[in-house]
Design goal:
Elements: H1 13-31, H2 38-57, E1 64-66, E2 71-73, H3 75-99, H4 108-124, H5 129-147, H6 153-184, H7 189-197, H8 203-221, H9 230-236, H10 239-264, H11 269-292, H12 297-314, H13 321-348, H14 364-367, H15 369-383, H16 389-403, H17 407-433, H18 446-464, H19 470-476
Antiparallel strand pairs: 1-2
Length: 481
Amino acid sequence: MIDPPRVELWAILPVLILFGGALVSLLGAAFARRSEQAPFALFTLAAIAAAAASALWLWDREPTTVLQGMASVDRLAVVGTLVLCGIGAYGTYLGFHYFERDEHRRNEFYALLLFALGGMALLVAAADLIVVFLAVEVLSLALYVLTALTFRRGPTEAAMKYFLLGAFASAFLLYGVAMSYGAAGTTSIQGLARALVGTTGNQALALVGALLLVVGLGFKLSLVPFHMWTPDVYQGAPSPVTAFMSAATKVAVFVAMMRVLFVAFGPLQWDLAPAVAVLSAVSMVIGSVLAIAQRDVKRMLAYSSVSQAGFTLAAFVSPNRAGIAAALFYLIAYSAAVIGAFGVVMLISGGIQEQTGFDRFRGLARRRPVLAGLLTIFLLSLAGIPPTAGFAAKVLVFGAAVNAGYWPLVLIGALATVVGAFFYLRVVAMMTMQEPQGNDISDASPLPQLVLAVPAVSVVVLGIVPGVIVPLLQEAGVLTW
């Protein structure tokens, strides 16, 4: 008698809650009036809180794989889900505040955000390359629609570019899965590692598959040379969508890349590390250099995200707990800073039309000192200037790279940090040293400023006492089932 398969749905409870909440929200949006936005926002926050609570419940579980080896239950998945839920909560609030000013209240925003979060939560728990591919597609489809949600020409054009290039990247990802299966006879992350350690795996074919997977995931991470879509999409998308996309996508995809490179292709890590180092170095330098030439803050932050992805990837040359902990800390520091920065940009941009050129930020410290102070903290963290979390994150990443023997990569990273400091501090100088230009139509509501103070405080606290979370991140860096 054949035993029926075990369906351990408790192990993916956060994913089920997020997808279930998305379906309920989508049905509600079909029947509710456009003016009723607050119930959708509150329901979304409740679903995110429930998903976070269910993830915490899984913290002390023994690391294992469930659902026939398709999903993993470990502390890395828990940490990834918790960070994603935090980003999702802020994205929800920013979206609520943003679409309040739109005469066509976009209640679909909340369902799409939950769908994207569900795909991301599934991605951080993926234990099979097929699940990685499916999760990437789910989150991508939601982000394509979110980008075009206002139905204006700019966002629609950006969404079309994102979709076309995303489909191209998906082909690379799928080819990578196929090559990996051909090399090892399985798409299981555990199975790949076992086959490549033994004599049953074709290491040359597996290396090709791994590189194709890195190309597919690199598109989602905006790594050079797969970053072409980033400035247009970040500028064209509504600011809450850009904030959510820039932070959450990187967290989810980088966690998936940890499983792919450190576990599935762990036996090939010394062959893959040089390629990873080159991608990291090129992304750090080119992202920083191109950001200097921008005259729009959203485009500047878009190229900055390319550089930040390169910094995060630098930790991947160290395939151990220290490297994983450094990458996770960098993702947390980056997420807090970038979602806060885009939140301030949203408040300053003057409504749905989003005027985000440098002129909007000249003399901001005189017109809106609180917003200028918050943006300064976020930009200093992105630049890696002490005592912010960005500085501590760079120290951890560079330390991991040094321990792996990649001194040249650290030197290139230090150079890119100096270049990056220029364009970040240029905006700070504009806000504090120049005269205001034009009429002030920025949002001066106190509640959004209070909400954005939370990531600002987090950035400072983590910069002063990074040891608060580093031990927990090191525990999450144990990738054995």
